């Protein structure tokens, strides 16, 4: 919780946290989405504010109640910017990152979006018994941020993987390298784990490919472990 006793080790830092899941419209009433609730990202934003940072939370389709948790305890130190699609997220995050010391991309960004957005509802009458959607790749936002980062700016990516054990770690190492981020926070997800849950289990991969942190606990505990790893890499 906030208040006396909590280390203000992020004081003076401006941080950006993206959270939630983008939605890519298909037509005026439908979208392609994902199961991210935004809870881990919100916990990261709250933890950073509690530790003294000035926070911009770029939120994609996060439940009002979950966002309410942010405005509750740390009002005034978190600015919330709401976005819908991956392209909107890219604009908002890139904008906020220009003055930031740390950027944490916890959002689940759609890898692809419909090549065309229909002006009116797709109908069965027009489509028949089979529908093929053409998708185009979205830009990799965090890789773009890492490529453009200023000296002293720390870029952190998240990865949700359905593999486990050594394979999970190897995939995470390759992903960190490919995106050239300072830290990659990886957690295992599946049909029954990782989403809509209170707890989380993570491994943080650092620049040399080593394990910079490893923890399991509440989303707040995980958030604090991520900020501890950020503070350690910036020393
Ligand atoms: N990410 C991003 N822009 C995208 C896709 C992902 O910035 N278009 C970010 C996410 O916010 C996250 C990190 O990249 O911080 C890893 O996302 P992930 O989906 O695990 O990686 P991908 O490179 O999309 O690989 P995969 O094929 O495993 O989905
Ligand atoms: Ca992806």
Automatic annotation (TrEMBL):
Pathway: Cofactor biosynthesis; coenzyme A biosynthesis; CoA from (R)-pantothenate: step 2/5; Cofactor biosynthesis; coenzyme A biosynthesis; CoA from (R)-pantothenate: step 3/5
GO MF assignments: FMN binding; metal ion binding; phosphopantothenate--cysteine ligase activity; phosphopantothenoylcysteine decarboxylase activity
Any GO BP: pantothenate catabolic process
Keyword tags: Decarboxylase, Flavoprotein, FMN, Ligase, Lyase, Magnesium, Metal-binding, Multifunctional enzyme
Residue segments, region Phosphopantothenate--cysteine ligase: 15-235
Entry annotated with the keyword Lyase: yes
Catalyzed chemical reaction(s): N-[(R)-4-phosphopantothenoyl]-L-cysteine + H(+) = (R)-4'-phosphopantetheine + CO2; (R)-4'-phosphopantothenate + L-cysteine + CTP = N-[(R)-4-phosphopantothenoyl]-L-cysteine + CMP + diphosphate + H(+)
Co-factor(s): FMN; Mg(2+)
DNA/pantothenate metabolism flavoprotein C-terminal domain sequence ranges: 10-231
EC number: 4.1.1.36, 6.3.2.5
Coiled-coil regions listed in the entry: none
Entry note: cofactor: Binds 1 FMN per subunit.
Span of the signal peptide: none
Family, per entry: In the N-terminal section; belongs to the HFCD (homo-oligomeric flavin containing Cys decarboxylase) superfamily. In the C-terminal section; belongs to the PPC synthetase family.
Function: Catalyzes two sequential steps in the biosynthesis of coenzyme A. In the first step cysteine is conjugated to 4'-phosphopantothenate to form 4-phosphopantothenoylcysteine. In the second step the latter compound is decarboxylated to form 4'-phosphopantotheine.
Name assigned to this protein: Coenzyme A biosynthesis bifunctional protein CoaBC
Species this protein is from: Microbacterium schleiferi
Full-protein residues shown: 175 to 409 of 409
